[in-house]
Amino acid sequence: RVNGQRLWDALMEMATIGATDKGGCNRQALTDLDKQGRDLFVQWCKDAGCSIDVDSMGNIFARRPGRNPDLPPVLTGSHLDTQPTGGKFDGVYGVLAGLEVVRTLNDAGIETEAPLEVAVWTNEEGARFSPAMIGSGVWSGNFDQDYAYARTDKAGKTFGEELERIGYRGQTPAQARPLAAAFEVHIEQGPILEAEEKQVGVLSGVQGMYWYDLTLTGQPCHAGPSPMEGRRDPFMALHRILDRLYKLAAEFGPWARATFGDIRAEPGSRNTVPERLVLAVDLRHPDQEVLDTMDRRFREIAAEIAAETRVEAAIRDEWRSPAVAFDSRCVEAVRASVAELGYSNKEMVSGAGHDSVYISRVAPTGMIFVPCEKGLSHNEAENADPADLGAGANVLLHAMLKMANG
Amino acid sequence: RVNGQRLWDALMEMATIGATDKGGCNRQALTDLDKQGRDLFVQWCKDAGCSIDVDSMGNIFARRPGRNPDLPPVLTGSHLDTQPTGGKFDGVYGVLAGLEVVRTLNDAGIETEAPLEVAVWTNEEGARFSPAMIGSGVWSGNFDQDYAYARTDKAGKTFGEELERIGYRGQTPAQARPLAAAFEVHIEQGPILEAEEKQVGVLSGVQGMYWYDLTLTGQPCHAGPSPMEGRRDPFMALHRILDRLYKLAAEFGPWARATFGDIRAEPGSRNTVPERLVLAVDLRHPDQEVLDTMDRRFREIAAEIAAETRVEAAIRDEWRSPAVAFDSRCVEAVRASVAELGYSNKEMVSGAGHDSVYISRVAPTGMIFVPCEKGLSHNEAENADPADLGAGANVLLHAMLKMANG
Ligand SMILES: NC(=O)NCCC(=O)O
Ligand SMILES: NC(=O)NCCC(=O)O
Predict the structure, then answer these.
(1) Theoretical Cys-Cys bridge with A370: which of A239, A388, B148, B399, CB 3.0 to 4.6 Å?
(2) Distance (Å, whole) CA B320 – CA B294
(3) DSSP code for B73
(4) What pLDDT digit, counting tens, does each position of A296-339 carry?
């Protein structure tokens, strides 16, 4: 069994890097604070006897040797970057639970057959550089590295130059190698486990998610003398499109999601009808077919309302992450570990994207969830119960041992 | 009669400063380009024999002496600053028509009883520094100069430091002095004169306009695992408030206006429900009582929908400019001049704020409109007919002469 207190202490120490006034964390990808967090993790892993490798995407792999160096490793990991107003657990927990597994095995003097690895994936959040999960995405062959390097933040800085600047552009090419299995433990980021009073979630997959930029272009005119009738006002289209997309999500039931995380107006002058609104749209559904229907309906709604309001609507696909089903052997290893340990549990699908989405394309993959307070995440108030975090790390330990030893 | 070709040439020369690709002008207040425009105007006025005075708000007064230096002057003028995607005529026309009046009187060797002045008012647009008409607003005692100096643009630069930087912070205190009368000629910025085929608008007043910031605060959460039901999503409040405000404008008839020129989301991350949306709201009506009703209803609507969506709504008053009625003697001088000159005309109210709104509080004031193409303004495609611009300048010339000599 892992040392829950040591895991908690590591989480709290990491949380001091980028700590916010409201008790959260702002440690965005490839910032100076991200570098500090990475440096601390690397130091801890070295102290635990691991060797470190950093690849050309800044992904970090800390390796604990196995008895048989020729066997492919069993990997775990997640991310250290946060949302701008993020919490202390999203991602970080998965990384430090991996470290805790290594420390626990060291304490108990247990050697595994296959090597174990703890990974830190770069820019999982997609908050500073869109899209999300770009470190694991390049590693698994889903994105070109050149595409990733050219991504810019709002200040116009590129991923490539920021990676170089913080000193985490490694020599090893970012590409998949054989893995015996990959696991990731994460807070649920939703309210289900807490509501149903279950301590552990056994994940069968991840819902599909599509990201878009919707651009509405009208005709700028003066706020005073221009009659309402003749206007081609992007806000007139916007409010109707929002209304219809919320109704679309309602129509496709409790699992459909429609989220608008960002918007900007151009030219953005108080007394001028904007020429242009750019809205970030995020649609999700666990059933790939339903998500594709939502995608089609979104395009129809935008076109219909644009025509009615005499505004132009253009949709740019920013990211498409189809629904994922995890490897049955990995799911079974998690299920069996939960049973051995006697935790209350629920089989479920993840509503959030995780690095495991991309890893699952090149290696057998599974995931474990633990509850978080009120289901809150991407929020500085994000919180979790140390006992639940310990339970998740125990399941991770057992599942990794199963896959590493046979 | 004025020289219409010379007026047009001056407009086109001024329009080269800040010219945009789409044929408009981006010469925002207190930028380097604003300085260039001011320098050109000052040079032209000096060449026309005027003395120049710049006050502590950067307002420029070019004076043509009268026979009797003790008489209060007859003033005209407008502004040289533009919207970020502005046109070649809004404001500039009123300034250069004033210069054309001076040049015409010089050509004809006409001396007036009272002195004449052509004014350039600083930051009329309110686009770079809110609120609008701040130069004439301080001069007429409506705003404190300290308040004006402390206004910031989006980059955080203050009005005061930018005024100093471009070298237009003058010695003369910005405060009203006695004026015999003040006139302003401006493009209509709306479609009425064009639609009714009238060449000149005789203005009886300006509609009231209120500016607000509406802040909607919800609870940030993750775009995936958070069920739609439990969200406190500012966009859910936004679309319903927009819908109701457009309906409010429709309810109060063809003269009511509801405009949303700018919006921002915080933290503004694609996969996070925003904590906060800040929307710029502009409500207008020519009838002060109706505008006050709209103001009250806006507050009720925001509160009602905020409660229903479990979002907080806060309204900050950014600017309140009540409806204005112009001085009857000035209106009569414009009316009589139009009649003498035989132009088709219409008595009307301005839908846009103008420096004359503030000047009318401390001096007898009147305004003249000319049509603009398709009623478009605050748009790079803004255009006007040289013949109409000449007609407006002729009316200005006659009205000024009436007040300066009698
Ligand atoms: N867990 C997480 O925040 N992932 C980012 C991708 C997503 O938006 O789901
Ligand atoms: N004419 C003009 O654009 N004035 C600015 C104030 C307003 O928004 O009406």
Answers:
(1) A388
(2) 13
(3) P
(4) 999 999 999 999 999 999 999 999 999 999 999 999 999 999 99
Statement: residue A204 has pLDDT above 90: yes
Tell me the C-alpha distance between B57 and B146, whole Å: 10
Three-state DSSP at B168 gives coil
Q: Which residues of A touch B379 (CB under 8 A)?
A: 219-221
Report whether pLDDT(A406) > 80.
Answer: no
Put simply, whether the predicted model's pTM sits higher than 0.85 gets the answer: yes
Q: Shortest CB distance from B265 goes to which of A258, A263, A273?
A: A263
- B275 near B211, Cβ under 8 Å? no
Q: Is A48 exposed, middle or buried (0-12, 13-18, 19+ CB in 10 A)?
A: middle
Q: Name the residue among B240, B254, B273 with its Cβ closest to that of A259.
A: B273
Please give the annotated binding residues of A, written as ranges. Answer: 79, 90, 125, 186, 378
* CA dihedral (A42, A44, A46, A48) positive or negative: negative
CA proximity to B185, closest of B95, B258, B104: B95
The DSSP bridge pattern shows strands B74-78 and B116-120 to be parallel
Q: Please state the φ and ψ torsions of residue A320, each to the nearest 5 degrees.
A: -130, 115
Q: What is the mean pLDDT of residues B378-386?
A: 95
| Tokens found for residue A130 | 């869109």
Nearest to B223 by CA among A210, A197, A279, A134: A210
Contacts of A46 (CB under 8 A, 6+ apart): A52
Contact between B222 and A377 using a beta-carbon 8 Å cutoff: yes
Interatomic CA distance for residues A178 and A201, integer angstroms: 27
